[in-house]
Amino acid sequence: MVVLKKQDELVWKKRTTREQWINWFYWLIGISIVLFAWKIISDKTVWFFVQDAPRQAADIGSRMIPPKWSYSFELIEPVWDTINIATLGTVIAMIIAVPVAFCAARNTTPHSTVRIVALFIIVSSRSVNSLIWALMLVYILGPGVLAGTVAIGLRSIGFCAKLIYESIEEIDANQVEAVKATGASNLQQMIYGIIPQVLPTIAGVGIYRWDINIRESTILGLVGAGGIGLQLNGSINTLAWTQVSTILLVILATVFVSEWVSAKVRGAII
Amino acid sequence: MMNNVSETLYPKSWKKPPFIKRSWLRWSIIIGSILYLIAALLSMDINIQRVLEGLPRGQRFIESFFPPNFSDNRGVVWEGILESIWMAIISTVVGVALSIPIGLGAARNLAPLWVYMTCRFIIAGSRTFPEIILAIFAVKLFGFGPFAGFIALSLGTIGFFAKLLAEDIENSSPAQAEAVKATGANWFQWINYAIQPQVMPRMIGLSVYRLDINFRESAVVGIVGGGGIGATLNTAFSRYEFDTAAAILLIIIAIVMVLEYASSHLRKWVQ
Question: At the fourth CATH level, which superfamily is domain A76-269?
């Protein structure tokens, strides 16, 4: 913030002239990058299809109404599968994520090499999307709910372990020292000094990830890994639009319920 | 007598307090989850034989990933990566630009009730459906290619960014807002000088984080035809070129690591 003197009058400005020019320069660079990106994308676009899109949207929309309500009874089993994929996947992830997190946290890791390995596990699990995990696991385990569950589990390890290890690094060291002062062994320090401090985070992260996993498991069926995505894919491929709209509404309802449950449970814990 | 007093004052044993205090709730949660696990595992229909058959196949599958082949399809992979990066940049910029009015509208302290409800509805709709489902519809409407992916990722960005922006605005200090209002500022000046400086640092951090997410998501929208590295990855899988697929996965991991490192540094620097 500066006050400039202009013809014996004081003028308030947010930036000096120099700062203003530097600011414009950054904007210029940013806008050029965006325009360049836009050019690349638009070169690869068939604009005829894009112009046609509103008509297509209206057409598909009109075919989707009314939803085929009778179909929703056939969806009970896929929804059950979807919830199972998310829940069991989260359980698997948490079982693996907690030890990984303890290895990755600077203050509890047994050795710095172990820490690097743990961090690598976290990053590679996080970078590969659950759909890609599912794509690979369907090759190994065969199509079905099991591949989806393992995919969700593998994908969630990184997320859970990252949040947990960050909270382990932020614990209050005094409490651990107090437990140590009573003559507790390393394991006892862990159980009575560290775990009670991070337990709410662990539970919270698990619930939060479960909520995300419900959403993710609705699409795993696209590559054959079970759940409601299988029906969605089938209905889209057979152009059964009334079924598609029913499925979308069912997904909407499931996600809303899961969000409500997770908000309630997190509210009770924290 | 003395002995008796010391015993009452200092109990000899101590039990850890349970995580959930109400015992009926604790037990019903434990029993309920055990019953659920049994039901879920029974309905999963695990075909042990198929899994056992799959394990040696899985081993061969994993072996065929090594060594990752960076050279054979270099041109295609490079092109896919660049396309993903451009897609991530443009969809983050457009998504954030669209999120700002929606986020302002979804903040209860700025907007009247009907605007608030409309904006919250848009956010909820965008958050519910994963980017892949959005991408399927975008591909149906706009045809194959990165444009569909760009639309899907932009829509996905709205749900994420507008929600966090709205929450941040709702948590901003009303005192500063009132001070600026008291100077006679109009609505735009009010937003620009009172609200924006309060939420800006966090928003910059979040947009870099979203760029990171959009890059990762661009690796999967390609599976349903949305362009980017996902299309290349899917082709590599369907052509059984697993060594190329491994190379692509490693490149994705490397870029995500760089982005994550950069974004955490930028966030620290901004705050």
Answer: MetI-like (1.10.3720.10)
